[in-house]
Amino acid sequence: MVCYISNTPDSPMPNWDQHLPIYQQLADRLAARLLDGELGEGEALPSVRALASRYVLNPLTVSRALQALDEDGLLETRRGLGVFVRPGARDRLRQAARARFMTQEWPALRARLQRLGITDNDLKWEA
């Protein structure tokens, strides 16, 4: 009897954009999880190996993504314990995302709404 062992994950492989470095895309995905509340402040992140396995990436790529988030002040490495979400990281992320939206996305969105003749009365803010 032949037994085949595979390191293929149970979930489908993530799609990566060819125009951005993969480490940056992973950092963005982890930051989005933090912003959505999936990762709590003070909470430990999975190990580099676990993240590499989950996202089917080289552990060095995962380390670079975590380093980028650490440099942004969102994570902290505790020697011998792992990588943890810093207190206040979600608020910092939210403020940065809001500022980016207001300066980069909102002007284009507002211009498109005006071109289409959509007013605030046409928009439904409740889900």
Overview of the structural elements:
It is a single chain. The mean pLDDT is 89. The chain has a two-stranded antiparallel sheet. It is mainly α and 127 residues long. The chain has helices at residues 22-35, 48-55, 59-71, 89-116; strands at 75-78, 82-85.
Q: Quick gist of this model?
A:
The protein has 127 residues and is mainly alpha-helical. It is built from 4 helices and 2 strands; from the N terminus they run αααββα. The protein has one domain: Arc Repressor Mutant, subunit A (Orthogonal Bundle).
Q: What's the helix-strand series?
A: HHHEEH
- As residue ranges, the low-confidence spans are none
Number of helices: 4
Please report the distance between the alpha carbons of the first and last residues. 56 Å
**What does the average pLDDT come to?**
89
- Structural class call reads mainly alpha
Oligomer: single chain
Overall geometry comes to: elongated
**Order of strands side by side in the largest beta sheet?**
1-2
Gyration radius over CA? 19 Å
Percent of residues in β-strands = 5-15%
Task: Describe the main β-sheet briefly.
Answer: 2 strands, antiparallel
- The CATH homologous superfamily is termed Winged helix-like DNA-binding domain superfamily/Winged helix DNA-binding domain
Let me know the number of strands: 2
CATH class: Mainly Alpha
